[in-house]
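// run 5 | inverse folding | seed 20
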């Protein structure tokens, strides 16, 4: 069941859902608006071969840059960058989050995730966004702009293994900035 604004507010006041910082005006009928942080990971394609090997540590495939507080970052047509939310999100053991784009931005060609729309119970950290410009013109991204929304769904029961638990080997728990892929860890011997 998707949580309504009333239930979201109740869960926040009980400390079960934590969103920091939170402007109460960002609580929508069944979601909470989230904002773009200033750090982005842009791809350095000129330093790599013409393929990505998912078995390799790809930390140097991207470089961390910051959006100026006054000037926008220009996301070029077809460009893909990793970004992060201003908000740090913490979920309890019986609620999952769904990250979605803002309709107004989708209508001009901005996609905010390809596969990272699901936020597991037990998650704690800033969400990494996968920003793509599918329009034919460059698009401006401003620090602090509304970039998406997160809705919440209650599970049928509390999860046995929360995201971040030792049993799961979660790769991104506690992240504070856009985090590059750690898919290579799936190939390492345990």
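// decoded
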């Amino acid at each position: 069941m998707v949580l309504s604004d009333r239930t979201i507010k109740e869960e926040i006041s009980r400390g079960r859902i934590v969103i920091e910082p939170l402007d109460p005006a960002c609580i929508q009928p069944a979601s909470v608006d989230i904002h773009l942080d200033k750090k982005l990971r842009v791809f350095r394609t000129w330093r790599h071969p013409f393929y990505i090997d998912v078995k390799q540590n790809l930390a140097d495939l991207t470089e961390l840059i910051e959006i100026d507080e006054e000037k926008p970052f220009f996301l070029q047509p077809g460009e893909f960058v990793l970004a992060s939310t201003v908000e740090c999100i913490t979920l309890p053991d019986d609620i999952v989050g769904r990250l979605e784009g803002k309709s107004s931005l989708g209508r001009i060609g901005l996609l905010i995730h390809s596969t990272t729309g699901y936020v597991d119970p037990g998650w704690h950290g800033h969400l990494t966004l996968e920003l793509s410009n599918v329009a034919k013109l460059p698009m401006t991204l401003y620090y602090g702009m509304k970039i998406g929304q997160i809705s919440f769904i209650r599970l049928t029961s509390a999860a046995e293994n929360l995201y971040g638990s030792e049993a799961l080997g979660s790769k991104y728990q506690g992240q504070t900035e856009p985090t590059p892929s750690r898919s290579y860890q799936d190939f390492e011997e345990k």
